[in-house]
Amino acid sequence: MASEEDAEQSYVPQKKKSESEDDKRRKKIVPGSLMKALMRPGGGESNPSDGDQIIYHCTVRTLDGVVVESTRSEHGGKGIPIRNVLGKSKMILGLLEGIPTMLKGEVAMFKMMPQMHYGEEDCPVPAPSSFPKEYDLHFEIELIDFSKAKVVSDDLGVLKKVIDEGQGWESPREPYEVKAWISAKTGDGKVIMSHTEGEPYFFTFGKCEVPKGLEMGIGTMTRKEKAVVYVTNQYLTPSPLLPMIEDYEEVHFEVELVHFIQVRDMLGDGRLIKRRLHDGKGDFPMDCALHDSLLQVHYKGMLLNEEKTVFYDTRVDNQGEPLEFSSGEGMVPEGFEMCVRLMLPGEIALVTCPPDYAYDKFSRPPSVPEGAHVQWEIELLGFEMPKDWTGLNFQEIMDEAEKIRVTGNRLFKEGKFELAKAKYEKVLREFNHVNPQTDEEGKVFLDTRNSLHLNVAACFLKMGECRKSIDACNKVLDATPVHAKALYRRGMAYMAAGDFEEARFDFQMMIKVDKSSEPDATAALAKLKKQEQEVERKARKQFKGLFDKKPGEIAEVQVEDRAGGEITGENQKNDLSAPFLERDDSQHCNEADGGQYGMGWFYSLWPSGRRIFSALGIDKCTIL
Q: TPR repeat boundaries (predicted)?
């Protein structure tokens, strides 16, 4: 009884498959409207099914034997067989129903009533001109071949038939460099191009060096794969491979993808390019280095001048020893690390790097001039994965956390706030799986987690993201509402964002929760007051004479003020100084937050203020 109840509970009615348009058309078929006569048997045991590409010749005759149309040259056709994809291509109903009953090589005669060919109501295939669609007709079909096909373009203008499967899963894409054997034939089998001897054809993906349809097909192939790519005329664009595109209805390209070189545009603007010279071991990207891995590399650095001057080579200048560094710690130029983290062990890559991702923001070697573009030839020897915390006891976990926190603090002092934040956040993610067992462990854990959240808040503040800094402080205050340092840091973020009332509340609350913090809170309140006074002074100065004018004269006020030196670029620059925060923090907060907090108190008191600011052309000015 229990098993019957379980069966009832576990039964879930299956969702009914939606009926396709072809299924709806098949319901129109009536007995006797489609008749088949076998003229020549085919071979094999399988029949074509949905998703198969079918290639066939078709000759249409009247019942007394007059040829109406044909694909065969002996009957006035072009000699090019028809290609369709069952379930995808638009076909007359008689062939849609009849061809799936055929074998490869079979020839059959189908007698069709008008509703089974072009006489069908709402037939999706337009009838040829002067076609006798109101008569019963004979359709002689020779099924030349059928096979599974990869639909490359939705309009079926590009299809691919796999001859031999390739290796791996990666396919070429822009801007990869590709080598392939390629030959091309017209639909009737005439060879129009063959590149199958000497060296494989070389081209750069995405550079229009092969016809568009062929490139789309190759973009679905893997190394060593052999395939036929069927391309119709709308995808036969001129290219160095096939300069002259004649009136071909379609071209069949036989392709063997010999090799391709992974080329990555790391920034998407063509400035930082990683070009793989030698394949590594493993699968990309599963076997690439993770964040915080310890990597060993040999590299040679070159200037991008005519001589390709070498400015450093670990095999020469480092006594043959490789460079060893931990990722995510800012120990190498940013462009260098970005590329190495996408390499496999044993891979060799050539990296072309712009100055802002090379040495303009990093310790520059003596022989590298300022603003220099460089190239690195890098070999990744191997790497060690970051330590797994699984199985560590509480003290070991806290020791590992302290090491990462110290690294984060170093990065913060070096001004690498994004990297520092990543270190703190890594530990916080790991802490989601830590469960203290004693009260003492719980206190240590809470204090450490709060400290990390406040470090994250400091990073956000330095990066100009005040709201995120406030959110990080809130995580501490949610757990410990009387945390004086969190109140102080949140107050700083509010003040940088221009939310002065919220900042005042936090500084006053500091005194209530911790008397020892009163000197710091009092100093902060004094600086807050000065900042408010400075904001008010500037607002009065900027709007001096504004309310003496009529609305239509606002633009005139703007011109007069600027002419009188009231709002100049130099004055605005000087106004960025803040008595409490560093200038960079307040400026970045207003810019990163889109200015929505910079004058929030003013807009709340005077909603039309934003429109006035816009009229004056100073709606994005920074007032802290």
A: 484-517
As a three-state string, the secondary structure of 73-103 is HHHCCCCCCEEEECCCCCCCHHHHHHHHHCC
Same-domain check for residues 233 and 287:
no
Tokens coding 550? 């009529």
Number of domains in the chain: 4
List pLDDT tens digits, range 571-613. Answer: 323 332 332 333 335 445 644 444 444 444 444 444 334 434 4
Mean pLDDT throughout 548-569?
42
- Residue 9: the pLDDT is 47
Phi-psi sector, 558: left (phi>0), alpha (psi -120 to 50), beta: alpha
- Give Dmax over CA atoms of the chain in angstroms: 110
Where does a domain end: 147, 171, 192?
A: 147
Do 399 and 519 share a domain, yes or no? yes
pLDDT-derived band at 103 (thresholds 50, 70, 90) equals very high
Among residues 65, 195, 60, 168, the alpha carbon closest in space to that of 116 is found at: 60
| Alpha-carbon Rg for the chain in angstroms | 36
What is the number of residues in the chain?
Answer: 624
Residue 570 maps to a domain: no
Question: Which CATH number does the domain housing residue 344 bear?
Answer: 3.10.50.40
In a domain, 178, yes or no: yes
* 3-class state of residue 382 by DSSP: strand
| Boundary-marking domain end, from 262, 283, 312 | 262
Domain contains 619? no
pLDDT tens profile 379-432: 999 999 888 898 899 999 999 999 999 999 999 999 999 999 999 999 999 999
| pTM for this predicted structure | 0.63
Label residue 178 by pLDDT band (50, 70, 90). very high
3-state secondary structure of 436: coil
Q: Are strands 191-195 and 201-204 parallel, antiparallel or unpaired?
A: unpaired
Average the pLDDT over 220-235 and give the result: 96
Angle value at C-alpha 364, between 362 and 345, nearest 5 degrees: 70
